[in-house]
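Notes, p. 3: input format for complexes.
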Amino acid sequence: MKPNIKFLQGNEACVEGALYAGLRFFAGYPITPSTEIAETLSARLPRIGGKFIQMEDEIASMCAIIGASLTGNKVMTATSGPGFSLKQEALGYAVMAEIPCVVVNVQRGGPSTGNPTHVAQGDVMQARWGTHGDHAIVTLTASNHQDVFAMTVEAFNIAETFRTPVILLFDEVVGHMREKLVIPEPGDIPLVERLRTSVPGGVDYHPYLPREDGRLPMSDFGGVHRYNVTGLFHDMWGFPSDNPGVVHGLLRHLVDKIENNVDQLARYKEFYLDDAEVVLVSYGSSARSALHVVRNRRARGEKLGLLELQTLWPFPAGIVRAKCARARSVVVVEMNTGQIMREVKAAVEAPEKVFLANRIDCSLITPTDIRNILRLIQGRGV
Amino acid sequence: MAIKDYIRERFFPHMWCPGCGHGIVLNSLLRAVEELGMSKNEIVMVSGIGCSSRISGYLDFHTLHTIHGRALAFATGVKLSRPELNLIVPMGDGDALAIGGNHFIHAARRNIDLTAIVMNNRIYGMTGGQFSPLSGCGVMATTAPFATVDQSFDVAELAKAAGATFVARSTTYHVQQLTKLLREAILHEGFSVVEVLTQCPTYFGRRNKQGGAVEMMKWFKDNTTPVGSKAKQENPALIERGIFVQKEMPEYCKAYDQVIERAQKGK
Ligand SMILES: Cc1ncc(C[n+]2csc(CCOP(=O)(O)OP(=O)(O)O)c2C)c(N)n1
Ligand code: SF4
Ligand SMILES: [Mg+2]
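Output follows (649 residues plus magnesium ion):
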């Protein structure tokens, strides 16, 4: 095998993507099924002069990467359900203080300890609304290792572009499955470095004063500019403020910088959608079974297509509406009680034609599960 | 540099009540920094949430005001990324030892070079006077209308047991000693803890009939004694002031540099 062709786990593909993107600091706490990410990085990061630290819990891990990002590093943490719950408060801090960072959640069964070693996709809404308060968030996912790699690089690029945390919502099957990964040559995928201020040292730098294009140039914390960072609503100096105008302006900025760029942030794949009468909408490992069904039916001449979402948040409602516009029925395939189905129903013109093919027993949804729903919809009985 | 040059005057007046001890800690800290001849650019202050944690906003250092209890975890990320910076982490008693207790013992265990200042007023000031893990038994608080039955931590003993390599205590009455201890703590390479007994006249003082700020500071004078003094032997109830631990151990960031060296050799 060529050195850039690997046979590895999805969690390792995520590590390869992160290192390709320029990861320099990782803090984490072991939890199945994400642990391989921490294990692999504990070996890989020091080799390139980066830092790995195993913290006392997931809260501390989240806090540590925020501190490390501020000083100018690309940073990441990785966890699963219970740990993702613990990270929520500090995640909100990164939203409020606009700190670029990447948070991986390799989903397992929940709630609570749930099923540590098996697959589920129950954290979709937690990714969206897990931290308190109005806010916007970016969440990406993937169904195979090449895409895990690509989406991980995207996550870093988006985090640095928009000064925001980005959640990578993988799942146990993708995380633990082994398959081929071709690592692109350096330069094949463009990398984004954060915008740094051109204000010289010694001159007053306003960390939270947006430029005309709305972007906020950063200054490496601890460097030539001294400034304040807080999780309180703050003014252009980063100093706490409860002035209603300042509060309103900041919250609008935090939401708008993401929600006004839905199309720019949308990543998806489509298979046979042009003339599809039945559109499956899926993501993560569920999309593998969905694609299998679509290909089989196409071989028999049936007009099925698949829309595979890779950006879950902000939800690409316009794209979903357009892609489903001509479908007689839409089937959302996911491993939860319908978290993305509700978004799809809200997005399409005819919500009554949206159906759910799901599984909530911590087993991978199979082509047969999807076929059973299709039979029902197509009036062929079970 | 003059003390006042370390302050962000733009952000005054401060939010502390008249008589609050937190301002005295600020003053002592600035004197320590000034005596050490440190420049504003080499100091990073990371704080959590509480009246005490607001100290960071008023100072012209690199300041990171974080979330309740987690200041040491944020500081760990900053320090490990930029080991050349001096990290000072002021915390309230609740901040450091209730919600933040786990981070406190683990930062001590790692011996990462941070200076932790525990501003211990034995109460949750910011939220209006609930008891803290340092209130101790028999204290009146808004969540203990019949007096507390909770035992308290001894911060110095806890820090020592957890592995801190510099541990000291003083009070807002003993400002000269406090300044000296803070100076030593900042110079110390490794995890240092300075506990400062400070007064919250608004909640602790009033509810516990301790009088105002002056009476509370007088209480610190009358009820503390230098470490190892004869007075302590005669009256074990006295609280000791001074340095409890001062020792050399491998510092975490330096130790991690060796990890990098080993990893790169094996390449
Ligand atoms: C997660 C979380 N829980 C609770 C609070 C509310 N809260 C703010 S400050 C504080 C306690 C402050 O007491 P202490 O740390 O002793 O500082 P002081 O105000 O006395 O200086 C609490 C409970 C919070 N901000 N965040
Ligand atoms: S409430 Fe207590 S701790 Fe807070 S500022 Fe007032 S006196 Fe100080
Ligand atoms: Mg307190």
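Chain A has a mean pLDDT of 97.
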